[in-house]
Model the fold of this input.
Amino acid sequence: MTDKPGGEKRTGLLNGFAAYGMWGLVPLFWPLLKPAGAAEILAHRMVWSLAFVIVALLAVRRWAWAGELLRQPRRLALIVVAASVITVNWGVYIWAVNSGHVVEASLGYFINPLVTIAMGVLILKERLRPVQWAAVATGAASVLVLAVGYGQPPWISLCLAFSFATYGLVKKKVDLGGVESLAAETAVQFLPALGYLLWLGAHGEATFASEGAGHAALLASTGVVTALPLVCFGAAAIRVPLSTLGLLQYLAPVFQFVLGVVYFHESMPPARWAGFALVWLALSMLTWDGLRTARRSARLRAEAAARAEAHGAAGAALAGTAGSAAAGAADAPRSSTDPVEA
Done:
């Protein structure tokens, strides 16, 4: 496999920074949608996301996947599960940000890699390396410390981490691209979301038409806010190594954490700092182990390729020598004892 050109890598990195940067800065967006409640914002997000991805798919004329998906009931069922789980994740996140829990929401995405690894062991029966076990144990200890600091388990963080880890597990089974997957999931969400918005309107509780054109435009832009980072992520995923994406994924919760502390002025008592420090230690261990494993795998692949090339060169040389010998024998003068051709 040849290395990608420098321009392609730069494009991939820029798209990766853009995707995770937008996800990291999104806590600044949800408060702009008040006085709409979290449920109304969530419903608009579902409806307008479908509208956005349909326009995007019409532009690129990419529809073959939809026909294949409709003929596969098992994948359709997984799409329904994915849509349900991401609905929980989106709803909890919007509510957490607009209720002053940005720091706790960021923690959910910090511990998400640890939850994903734990689910791999419990559900997929994956085997962990010693450093991964140590990281998961450290993550579990951080949750205990944070539970003491909060006076209860960090339910928002755990809900976000487990819902997103489950979503990732289901998406792995579905095996659809980012935009296509979002289109399928929001298609499942669309009718319940639209029904809820119509119900709100019928009871005079909808803010879409009552708070002015600016508010309506912001609610409609939830589709762009949802889909655009996914488009950038897809552009990054095909251009940069997975190890690089794995490092970039920490940008989003870092931005969210900084916003929670610096911009939203959420409190960080010592116990909370201690819990976050343990989470960051666990993630550092995971990152170090992942980079070390990736380097070792790359070295082994390079050595295997070098051996294969050496064997190939030796075989070609041997074949050339044998061919020369055969040609020399064929050109030699025939003796009287040689058989005569008919």
About this structure: The longest helix spans residues 270-331. The CA atoms of residues 51 and 223 lie 7 Å apart. The radius of gyration is 28 Å. The chain is about 80% helix and 0% strand.
